[in-house]
Every structure is written in C-alpha cells, then in structure tokens.
Design goal:
Layout (H helix, E strand, L loop, with lengths): L2 H10 L4 E6 L11 E6 L4 H14 L3 E4 L5 E3 L4 E7 L6 E4 L2 E5 L4 H10 L2 E2 L11 H6 L3 E2 L2 E2 L4 E7 L5 E5 H4 L7 H5 L2 E8 L1 E2 L2 H18 L6 E4 L9 H7 L6 E2 L2 E3 L6 E4 L5 H19 L8 E3 L2
Parallel strand pairs: 2-5, 3-5, 4-19
Antiparallel strand pairs: 1-2, 6-7, 7-13, 8-14, 9-10, 11-12, 11-13, 15-18, 16-17, 17-18
Helix pairs in contact: 1-2
C-alpha cells in the first residue's frame, strides 16, 4: 500500500477510501473506467483535510456530486475522486432551506413542497446535487439556481472557508465564479416563498410529465449535451442537420430529443466523444453555429 493511500485512510478512515473504483457506477452516463482513489468524506472537516492531503502530495483531485454532467475516460483516471454523498444534510428554516452540497436537488424540491414552500419546483427533475447545481447555475423551465440562492459557503484552494452571496458567485448561463476561483461548495441557503402545498405538488407533476414526454429518461445520459447557442436551440440545430438518431457505436443522438446524447447500452467514452465531434462538425457545416459542449470530462 502506498504512503499516500495510508495517509488517506488515516485521515478519512478505511471505509471511506476505495481503490480502482469503476466510475461507470457513479455517473448517469454509466460510462467510465477506474479511478485510482474514490473517497467519501463524512463531514466538512474530513473533506478539507482530504483536499489538503491531495494538495500536499501533488495529487490531482475531482469533486463529485451525482455524476449527472460528467463523462469519464474508458481507461479511468489516475487521481482522487472526492464524493460529496455524505455532505447532504438539509433543514427547513422558515422560508429557507439550508443544505449540504451533496444534497440531491430532487430531494430538496420534495422537502420544499412538504413545507409549503414554492420556488424550487423546477429542480425536482434535475438529477444533480446542490453543489453541482450552483457550479453550473443549473436551471429548467425558465428558472435557475440564481433565482433561489441566498448565500453559499465555499472552501477556497488555500483552505479558507468563505460565505458568498449570489452576486459574488457571478451565476450566469451554465457558469459561475465557483469554477473560475476553484471553490468547493460546502453548503448553501435557498430563499423560497410560502405557497399552497397542493399547487406546488401539481406544478411538480406537470413538469415531470413534460420532462418524461420530451426527454429520453429511459436511457443513461448526461442531460443536455451542448450549451444553448445564443439565438438558437442546440436540439433543433442538430435535428436540422439531419442527425436525429445518429450513432457512433452505442452512443446515439436521441430520437426523442436531439439535444441529448444517450447510452444505448455499453457505449464507451470514445463513442460519445466521436459522436459529439461529428455532431459539432455537421452542425457547423449546416448552420454555421459552433456548438459548445456542456458536459464535463475527466481523464479525456
């Protein structure tokens, strides 16, 4: 056992450190080879100590929510994946919800409904965590995280913890200063409004129906594959270029929604990469629009 592995176990405990963990088990694409170390800190203190250990050893690390916007190399990655799954506690405080970065958005939306709080209905079908949603300012059906965020607690690369309001986090379309500054989201407070519990539930059901009827939820994917180009919709551009159902290996442009690349079963990261490159090339050729990938990559 390497000295670094022993130090990780010493900091986090044996049960929180796995070696050569297949990332296909931790991404919604169901794609990805083994990572050298997969760790699951139990609390913020252990998370901070684990990151510090990686920095001291010169070891690359990656913060993981639910892997809902991530494509991992078929050969894996020789680094440390730090899962936020245990940092997921949440509580309702008046008209606010305070939650750890690892809290699933879908759970927070349900908790808001049960408390009769409105404003988070749009997030009920988003498969990621609170932390990941803030990093990318996730949104759907005309609403975004910046509409409900009050303040976030972040860990800076120098180990200091800061509280940042949404203005300081510069939340924009699929971007934020969290990325630019290398912050790790630890916790956030969401400001909601009092509402009718039944109306909130009905709105969530309506959005779930829309999502199910329009998106290929029956297949593994990473959600929208490309960012929305200004003045256009990525799915329409892809469809207009004749790419509905286009495949490379077991990766396919969804026939239900061309903005999604799906795993038909056994797709590799190489399949997805080749498909996306060809989609971008053909869309550029057909419409002159350059598509920008929305998916994060690890080991690629």
């Amino acid at each position: 056992m390497s000295d670094f592995c022993q130090e990780l176990i010493g900091v986090l405990g044996k049960d929180c450190v796995r070696k050569e963990e297949p990332m296909r088990n931790h991404t919604t694409f169901r794609i990805g080879g083994p990572v050298q170390f997969f760790v699951t800190p139990e609390n913020t203190k252990d998370l901070t100590r684990g990151i510090h250990l990686c920095q001291k050893a010169g070891k690359s690390y990656f913060i993981l929510g639910r892997g809902s916007n991530l494509l991992v190399s078929d050969t894996g990655w020789r680094g440390v994946v730090i899962s936020m799954e245990h940092l997921s506690k949440s509580c309702v405080q008046g008209t606010s919800i305070v939650a750890g970065a690892g809290a699933p958005l879908s759970r927070l939306a349900r908790e808001a409904r049960e408390a009769g709080l409105t404003g988070l209905e749009f997030a009920a079908g988003i498969p990621g965590t609170l932390g990941g949603a803030l990093v990318m300012n996730a949104g759907a059906y005309g609403s975004e995280m910046k509409d409900v965020l009050a303040v976030a607690t972040v860990l800076a690369p120098d180990g200091k913890i800061h509280r940042k309001d949404k203005k300081e986090l510069e939340l924009g379309y699929r971007t934020s200063s969290i990325i630019k500054n290398g912050y790790v989201v630890l916790e956030a407070e969401l400001n909601l409004k009092e509402g009718d519990k039944n109306a909130i539930g009905q709105r969530m059901e309506d959005l779930a129906f829309q999502r199910k009827s329009k998106q290929p939820l029956e297949y593994p994917s990473a959600g929208s594959t490309f960012k929305r180009p200004k003045g256009h919709f990525a799915g329409k551009l892809i469809d207009d270029a004749g790419l509905r159902g286009f495949s490379v290996g077991q990766a396919q442009v969804s026939e239900k929604h061309c903005g999604f690349v799906i795993n038909k079963g056994g797709a590799t990261a190489e399949d997805v990469m080749k498909l996306c490159e060809e989609v971008r090339r053909r869309v550029k050729e057909h419409s002159g629009v350059e598509l920008e990938p929305e998916i994060k990559k690890l080991g690629l």
